[in-house]
């Protein structure tokens, strides 16, 4: 049963990712980079973003540098602690995030359209319970 649940979650995630892949490539983003843009918008410090995403800090730091090089993000020093820096989305990054979110939303909406509103509410409740550690 555990493997069946994991397999279904994995296959759904893969199908959504594949459906969005072409659109994300046109934006010069991976799915993980699009997620990081979303996270940085509310968690601008690298360590906070890494913790929120559940990824190793070096992985997030590398991704942040790549997004900065592509002009999706800009770095600035923290006014209170000059050893720290934060990131914020550039206009290009904000536009790319909007487009990436539209791709993700469309892909998921196509699948959710197969469910009744009460089934979606129940799905959200169950996912929330599974998410709690």
Automatic annotation (TrEMBL):
GO terms for biological process: response to stress. One of its GO terms (molecular function) is DNA-binding transcription factor activity. Pfam families: MarR. InterPro entries: HTH_MarR-typ, MarR/SlyA-like, WH-like_DNA-bd_sf, WH_DNA-bd_sf. Residues 2-132 form the HTH marR-type domain. This is MarR family transcriptional regulator. It comes from Thermus scotoductus.
């Amino acid at each position: 049963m555990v493997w069946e649940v994991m397999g279904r979650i994995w296959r759904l995630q893969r199908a959504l990712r594949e459906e969005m892949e072409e659109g994300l490539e046109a934006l010069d983003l991976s799915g993980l980079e699009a997620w990081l843009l979303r996270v940085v918008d509310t968690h601008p410090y690298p360590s906070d973003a890494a913790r929120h995403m559940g990824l190793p800090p070096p992985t997030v730091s590398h991704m942040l540098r790549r997004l900065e090089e592509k002009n999706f993000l800009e770095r600035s020093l923290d006014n209170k602690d000059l050893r720290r820096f934060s990131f914020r989305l550039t206009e290009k990054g904000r536009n790319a995030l909007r487009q990436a979110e539209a791709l993700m939303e469309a892909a998921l909406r196509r699948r959710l359209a197969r469910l009744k509103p009460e089934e979606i509410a129940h799905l959200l409740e169950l996912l929330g319970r599974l998410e709690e550690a």
